[in-house]
Amino acid sequence: MINIIVIGTGNLGTQLCNALEKASSKPDATVRLLGYYNRSQTLIPKNKSRLFSKMDHLPSCDMIIVCTPDDAVSKVSEQLPSSDTIIVHTSGSVHLDILNKHKNRGVLYMPQTFNKERTVHFETLTICLESSSTAVYESLEIVGSSLSRKRTPLPSTQRKYLHLAAVFTNNFVNHCYLKAAEVLEKQDLPANLLHPLMKETLEKALELGAQASQTGPAKRKDAYTIAAHLALLNDADKALYKSITDSISNTYGN
Amino acid sequence: MINIIVIGTGNLGTQLCNALEKASSKPDATVRLLGYYNRSQTLIPKNKSRLFSKMDHLPSCDMIIVCTPDDAVSKVSEQLPSSDTIIVHTSGSVHLDILNKHKNRGVLYMPQTFNKERTVHFETLTICLESSSTAVYESLEIVGSSLSRKRTPLPSTQRKYLHLAAVFTNNFVNHCYLKAAEVLEKQDLPANLLHPLMKETLEKALELGAQASQTGPAKRKDAYTIAAHLALLNDADKALYKSITDSISNTYGN
Fold it and tell me: CA-to-CA distance for B147 and B140, rounded, in angstroms?
């Protein structure tokens, strides 16, 4: 049984506490969420685990999972006392070495977008693991398997690439959705006019791959349509449109 | 009964011929696909409608639907003889006026991405209609309703904005998928590591809207992570990453 404390209950921390609480309550549980800590001392709605009040006086446990923003991982690591407890961070872009103060350290990276409201189904994810030793890896495997059937080892040197790809897949895709929604809104056109296209774009890319799926004015270098689109946009959005169009044009050659 | 001929059997034309053939075979059919024309005289696989050999000697019909690339619509319109036949184009970015040679003219715009292999479910789409007269509109409605329960009138002045938004939603989103896939491939990481993220990104944007869904280094102006990502990219992809990051940063203010 691995006794766990979670530090930080933002988007990921909240979801992780809820998933670990659920995993803890199973008859054959291999993990137990002892509780969580956050700076603002905010309770997670509907989660019955304990909220601890001091980060430097946490109860003894087997694993502390740090779910703070990336730039706070280092500071939290420093504040946690040295011990045999496994200290784990969950950041795609932060190296395992940042936890070097701690003898037993690891990473549990879940390539997904989290927010407090939408329940994330961890079981659909491949949980990416890295550790300072084989023994730590085994503990991470136990925690990972309580969340998902799919795990893979992934060193920091590759995890940063996966995180970069995740930014394209989520942040950048979502921004394209936003720009489309803004165009429709300014014309008083309902957003749902393009919902089927959003879905088909995803399904098509999953089936055929993104390269075979590409169509449109940038790919076919249709200067007339591109110019007509640019004329509809403000300067900032023109720059964005041009940049993505150039990138598509270059990708598909002549 | 509206007798239809389709000109051009690229991605959209092929799908439309197949959907119209299916609609033609229903017991209560209101449309009939007489056949189609394409320059290369290529048969549509599994479609039993006739392939006509000369565009300027098509049989008499009620409606000709032009599914050529945008820049060919004008030329096709010129080549078609003047008559009472309704001439319709299907292009998001082309004005209805391009068909001015023809007394009865219209637009059937389906905001979707088409290719020959994947069957598109027209019934999920809102078909956008524009016409030169009320009588023509009624005919378009009949054709539109044979394809989908959802139709809306949409003038050329607004259709071009919908088309622009569709480019963001499809071409640009798909390009982000491609860039992510390239990053993974170069690291020999399996593409399916990010499939759950692709799906959740869509679901989240549909549920919460794209603005509320945004997260990540660009939104939180995390200069450290942005610089670390840029260091992993070649010059062309750096430019793309910077441009989208700037746009996100500007969107979410300070």
Answer: 11
CB spacing of B126 vs A193 below 8 angstroms: yes
Output helix, strand, coil percentages for chain A, rounded to the nearest 5. 50, 15, 35
Instruction: Quote the pTM value.
Output: 0.94
CA distance B223 to B217: 7
Q: Compute and round to an integer the Cα radius of gyration of chain B.
A: 22
Indicate if the alpha-carbon torsion angle A17, A19, A25, A28 is positive or negative: negative
The C-alpha atoms of residue A21 and residue A28 are separated, in whole angstroms, by: 13
Residue A214 to residue B243, Cβ atoms within 8 A: no
Band the pLDDT of A117: cuts 50, 70, 90.
Answer: confident
Whether residue A202 and residue B197 make contact (CB cut-off 8 A), yes or no, is no
Selecting from B121, B206, B237 the residue whose C-beta is nearest the C-beta of A195 gives: B206
Distance from CA of A31 to the nearest CA of B (A): 24
Cβ neighbours of residue A27 closer than 8 Å, sequence gap 6 or more: none
Three-state DSSP class for A63?
strand
Confidence of residue A219 (pLDDT cuts 50, 70, 90): very high
Alpha-carbon dihedral sign for residues A163, A165, A166, A168? positive
In which band, very low, low, confident or very high, does the pLDDT at B254 lie, cut at 50, 70 and 90? low
Which is it for the CA torsion B240, B243, B248, B249, positive or negative? positive
Residue B124 has pLDDT above 90, yes or no: yes
CA distance A126 to A191: 32
